[in-house]
Amino acid sequence: MHVLDTAKVQICLALATVLILPFVLSSGILATEILIYAMVVAACNLLLGYTGLLSFGQGIFFGLGTYVAGVLTTRWGVPIPLVLLGAVVLGGLVATAVGWFTIRRQGVYFVMLTLAFAQMFYFLAYTFSDITGGDNGLLGVPRPQIMGQVLDEPWAYYTFVAVFFLVIFGLLLMVTRSTFGRTLLAIRENEGRAAAIGFPVRLFKIEAFAISGAITALGGALHALLIGVAPLESINYHTSEMILVMTIIGGSTSLFGSVMGAGFYLLLADTLSVIWPRWLLLLGLVLVTVALFFQRGLWGLVERSWDALVERRKVTQKEAGDV
SS3 breakdown of the chain: % helix, strand, coil, rounded to 5? Predict the structure, then answer.
């Protein structure tokens, strides 16, 4: 294991990110979005990086989280803690069902099944507009309250989300470094051998789906509370694509790479959209560059840079010793 991949270093990097963002960004909303999507991308990384499952269904769970927040707060007035708990439970249950069906196939057929489920849930949300609001979405989703104080100020809500981010990041670290996480890696490397040893491969995959779906739905609910809307676009398959792109950019070999991928994508999109209306073309060129020259993502670049610095320091110390 690389020294930067140890649990202490990873959690310290996550904490440093939370503390640094308010000093380097003027927008509390953008900083909060980075933390929300960092959670969601880390959950996707549990599937892609640790289990080897390329799923286009993450938008399902993100969208369900936004609708849970929208429906329960605007129509039923449910307290925010129960809203977030409901999003986690529903996301986990739906992810379990989707995983149970999709893992019956492998490779491109698995990918197509997840994409089909994403399209199905999108059209369900579009069709049942009485519940979801259809094209208009659900408006007026309120911010949470703490001790009677509404978190209307962006940086106050950022602090609220930062607590969830650190807890989720820590839990995912524990999961990936547990026996369960090491078994997922074994399944990713050689599923046939893992099954021959006696591991219930299907059960492990479904559990990974459930954990990933629960966290993604939580991120969707937090995002709806941030922007005050549960939009139809949140459950669109383009959301799944965006989450996957963030995961690949950051690198699927490290959880903090997910944080880097989310931050890089959102900051780049925010910057390019100001420079040129057709900023997606520029973003596409950046993604091509990453795919061609940084196949382990931004985290791989960080590891190589760290190794180069360590090697250079050793050479310098050796030269000084010779003198």
Answer: 80, 0, 15
